[in-house]
Amino acid sequence: MKHLEVKRLDCQQVKAAEVPALFKTEKVEYHKIDTVDWEADYPYCPHVEFAIAHKGDAIMIHYRVEEDSVRAVSGNDLGPVWEDSCCEFFVSPDAEGGYYNLEANCIGTVLLCNGQSREDRTPAPVALLGRIDRWASLGRTPFDTKNGAQAWELSLVVPVSSFFRHHIVDLSGLQMRANFYKCGDKTSRPHFLSWNPIDVPSPDFHRPDFFGQLAFL
């Protein structure tokens, strides 16, 4: 199981567009999402890395991706963003409250749900989704597949209120289990990558038993 310390940054209001520069200034470390769990069927491995930090009342995530093509058809939150060029953060604050899947395509359209398993998912209230600030280097307008080498970035500022089945006030000192993914079910080269390895026969990101560990400093 991989372990990751999530650095606390002393900042107040932070916009998603400011996160890349902030992480550079604060020397926040980047980590690769490069485990090809189902290589026999889905061998493609684009270059993907993420950095994560927090400011007590919000998590900040920055993804950097290089891949052979991009797809961004889903333009409405709670839609099938996993079919597009998509980065995902699955996190379980505790053993009882289930886990959250926060999925975002390359234009910042998000899907956020909570539940105990793949079949038992409750979507986040729309009002909460609106509080997740997003910045996408490709813009926010949907588009179909763009072929050829593509590089894109995505930043999210996720307030603790996004964990709508929990009552988190300050992230400092908390331990959570989590995994980070990159996928694209309907891209020209479907792929399924994870940060912490998943040992099951076929693609399935809804496996909290294979989450890694996050320690919020």
Automatic annotation (TrEMBL):
Gene3D superfamilies: 2.60.40.1190. It comes from the Bacteria. GO terms for biological process: carbohydrate catabolic process. Residues 18-216 form the Carbohydrate-binding domain. CDD domains: CBM9_like_3 (cd09620). GO terms for molecular function: carbohydrate binding; hydrolase activity, hydrolyzing O-glycosyl compounds. This is Carbohydrate-binding domain-containing protein. It comes from Segatella maculosa OT 289.
